[in-house]
Amino acid sequence: MAFNHKNLIDITEYSSDDIMMILKTASRFKSVNERRIKKVPTLRGYTIVNMFNEPSTRTRSSFEIAEKRLSCDTLNFGGSSSSTVKGESLVDTIQTLCSYKIDMIIVRDKHAGVPRQIADTCDIKVIDAGDGKHQHPTQALLDLYTIWEHKGSFENLNVGIVGDIRHSRVCGSLVPALKIMGCNVTLIAPATLMPARPDIMGVDRTTAKLDEVLPDLDVVYMLRIQRERLEDAPFPSLREYSMLYGLNKEREHLMKPDAIICHPGPINRGVELDSYMADNPQRSVILDQVYSGILVRMAAMYLLLGGVDDGISA
Amino acid sequence: MTATGNIKSICMDAEEIERSLTRMAHQILEKNKGATNIALVGIVTRGDILAKRLVDKISEIEGVDVPFGRLDISFYRDDYSLHYSPEVLSTEINFSIDGKDIILVDDILYTGRTIRAALDALIDIGRPGTVQLAVLVDRGHRELPIRADYVGKNVPSSSSENVRLFLDEVDGFTEVQILDLENGDRIGSAPLGSHGDDK
Lengths: 314, 199
Hints:
The structure holds two protein chains of two kinds. Chain A is built from eleven helices and nine strands.
């Protein structure tokens, strides 16, 4: 089975076989991450640029660790040090980077579509590390990996996503990825945080009532309430949101005994999750998601940079 | 890509393979003066099965348990190809290799590049006392200064041929085949359970 992708920008370009290949490759990197020398020479001699034009600590550090464990050379680029603040256009910046003879760019940008534009500008491989409210494919992959590890398969799994779906790029990749893998997806949010056309995303149902659907869910995916968006007043108060949509100890009796809780981080404790749920060893897989992030990013870089099946294994 | 090429001959059958492994088990014990400090590590996807068979033989002869592990070397290869296998492979060495006499086991020794990669992989896991190499078939054509300490059978071969091991545990039958390679044929191991008709 060959892996014929140049970029990881839009998860809908990937088939369920492609995604399974990434997840299986990710599981092979586990033993590397669990020994004393947490490094393999696989990407020695490759140069990867991390271009983060928007603040990011978690995603960027996860990519950096993944790159270092694959032995590639990295350059961190962007933010206030980038020449875009001096007025250079994106295309000029990318062409400059291309002239360094780099092999891959990891892009985070506040504008949707920037990773695609970079891929169209040059011959370098691109991984989207989150663009605007569009996509965040490696987040979707790490979520899938975590779900796969805990549930064993995706077929007919009931996954509910709760919270600010309208502004979420996590959802932009996660919903299609779950559908590709055969899950049933329910979106749960007040109408003000629901996208205008959830049907286009291919979801199975939408509701504003968490308590009605909670008993069906195998996976409860809580999104972060982005406090910076509260100026738009999507709901009256954080306290009211927490009462209606927060996953807390009082709601646990509604959940399936083996339902798990995911969250992309960082958590607003007391808003979407209370500490009892966030730290619940039977249900919360939030720290597994963080670890899975390293594994799937290693797998994606490995496969995109040429881990192809050429049949040579003498 | 075509299949594996045409089968030219069977150079080892199941009984011959079994007898070779028995002899190799005795040789390993003789050279290491028993089984007290040895551990066997097989390279996936068939070296690990051979290593398991050797471990069973050694345990039977000496009456002691010998540590056994498997090594996935795809992330160490210099040709940087995804090891041909859709199944989930993984390194699984659940004991300390520090100071141990490690018997590295593979099916076919050819260019030596797999073994080079395996040595790197092993040394990232720990610091073995010694590393010795056991292979079922040595077909020549080395590209690196590597030799085996224990050999089941020396099979002179041409580089236009492929030598492949099939094992009952994963393929349903046991033999070593010599095949004629044509342009585009796969070199090296067959996928597990393929009966040699892989694409």
